[in-house]
Amino acid sequence: MPAQIANMIAAGEVVGRPASVVKELTENALDAGATKVTVVVTDAGRTLIQVIDNGCGMDAEDAQLCFERHATSKIAEAEDLEQIMTFGFRGEALASIAAVAEVTLKTRRAEAETGTQVTIGNFGATEVSECSAPVGTSIAVRNLFYNTPARRKFLKSDNVELKHIIEEFTHVALTRPDVAFTLTHNGRDVFVLKAAKSLKYRIQDLLGAGVTGELVDIDVQTSLVRVSGFVGRPESARKTLGNQFFFVNGRYFRSPYFHKAVMNAYAEMVPEGVTPSYFLYLTVDPHSIDVNISPTKTEIKFEEDSVIFQTLFACVRETLGRNSFGASIDFDTEGAVEMPQISRSFSEYKSGGIAPSHDFDPDYNPFDQAQSSDYVPDFGPSTAGEGAGSAGQGYGHGIARSENYGALFEERTLALGKSIVVGGRFIATPVASGVMLVHIRRALVRILYEKTLRALQAESPVSQTALFPVEVQVGAAYVPLFEENSDLLSRMGFDIAPFSADTIVVNAVPEGYGADEMSVRGTVADLLQVLSDGGHNVLPEMMQSATARKFAEIGAARYSEIKTPAEATRLLDDLFACSSADLTPSGKRITCIVPIEDLEKRF
Ligand SMILES: Nc1ncnc2c1ncn2[C@@H]1O[C@H](COP(=O)(O)OP(=O)(O)OP(=O)(O)O)[C@@H](O)[C@H]1O
Ligand SMILES: [Mg+2]
What we know:
The chain is α+β, with helices and mostly antiparallel strands.
């Protein structure tokens, strides 16, 4: 088999998409000791990916050799493989890239007067010449996959490929806060990261001050592993994706297993389906891990993975327990959004004086007490279904279509003005047959769902609350999402416009949504999730109802609280005007009636 074809096959493993090229080249730059790395991308990497560094550079011989398979300067003996301290060690990356793209390398070592230029053109044709060049290395990769059309066709839209590039760039930038990084796309700056004093400043520059304000730091050392970095406050966790990172010995890796350990630590502190952020840096003896088990090195084998799992769980849990009681964080939030330090449910127990534990007891749960006293009776489907008797059944069939409509309507009318709000979460209303209970949040979901659906079907516009404009840095990868969906968003009652390459500005939100800056930021985070979920491939009707459902869930969570009897009455009016008042669009029960007989049984 000709070497060229062997290389193309191997390249499939290492270079899956433009983002892999960015990863390999930036890692090489860091291995070369660069303090400044510039990444230039055109057309999401299809046309050009160029990485320029100020590292050690290569001499003329190495400049040609580096494209040979297994030409690595980083491993000399088998023993070195046991304790890898560089990103690269296989000598595969450049050979693989050169097999599927046109590559131009320019490089010079500090002691050399002239540099070397190596061009690898169509099907491996190589040209070498002397050139003038700054110290360091610049590698330009053009027309990626020009000779593997199937793979080129496989690439996703520019937005998706750029998102992958940004992800890889983010991983590398997070491994080395001390190095300055720049990423430009089609001539626009996406990131300009100066060398940072510490990790927190790097995170802030990368992901925005809003993210750093939500983090607490963690630093724990056991005989096996040191765990440092940051974890997100439970009360600030959102349904947004991303911002979960593991590193070991300075290398990014993925681990569903360790992810589970961290998520277990958050159990019962965050609502289901919500993923908190974390930036966790593990340091272990290099002998105890195997980096070479996947072609992209993002899977890593740990010798003592179950012990590390336990350690992660315990130390994250302990950190959260310690910090959720208002301890101030060692975090410079200068210019950051003010985050509430304690959420309501946590603050209620603050006075309880639960001593934080510093032991590594995996069963330790600082919130046990909180959970038990936070108990709210659940009149969910099981209890309501059995106990509600005949009166409850009427609601089980959708009020508009129910045979008992007349009777229920009468009960409703009787109830007018007598509703009370219980625990901020339920409305209780006396009706002829007992007490009707309404789950407020679910009622809001139903109301907003129908409202949204009507808005999406362009039947009736949603009223807006105009704001003092709020700028939100969402990241360059996400600004286009807001542009693409601006029609949808404006029908929903949002007025959101691009502000700069990585920032949007919110001018109005739908009526009822919180209008303060914090709420607006939260809403944007939720929108990001809804919009980046895509749904562009599903049928328009399905997309409408799915979108309406998501918006309703968000809206209900963000709706200002229902407190007074008058507000409760208005809510009930809106609810009973819906096509169905008994179930949410996802089938959760909204209303039930506790019959008088059941009340009697209690005495
Ligand atoms: N930016 C750079 N500056 C200086 N030398 C470089 C640079 N990029 C590559 N090299 C040299 O070229 C060699 C080959 O690079 P390549 O990425 O193919 O392999 P590697 O980094 O050793 O291993 P891996 O395949 O695991 O990345 C490196 O070992 C290094 O000596
Ligand atoms: Mg490499």
